């Protein structure tokens, strides 16, 4: 099945495993929170137990160095493609209010990005991720 849009995460390639997982979880929550139409129906097992819905299309995870991440972020902003960001500073905070304050304190060009998630037309997302490679 092909989809007209793409959901992609781009992680900085020097993160520890726990950081990669943490950043991925946070940035995709931004996509889910602003694009509920991407979520499928609830899951139900054979016993009738209900589980939360998930994205109805794949989430592709990529990696790249800091320069690749900065360039992808810039292209996403320039193209007005929905983008969630996670910066190094967010590893030092403990709540959403402090997270938002940490991002607000830094100019866009100076954000020390460790991950982003983007959702948009497939071709646009592919152009945004130019230079990134699929996560290994």
TrEMBL record:
It comes from the Bacteria. InterPro entries: DUF2000, Pep_tRNA_hydro_II_dom_sf. This is DUF2000 domain-containing protein. It comes from Dactylosporangium siamense.
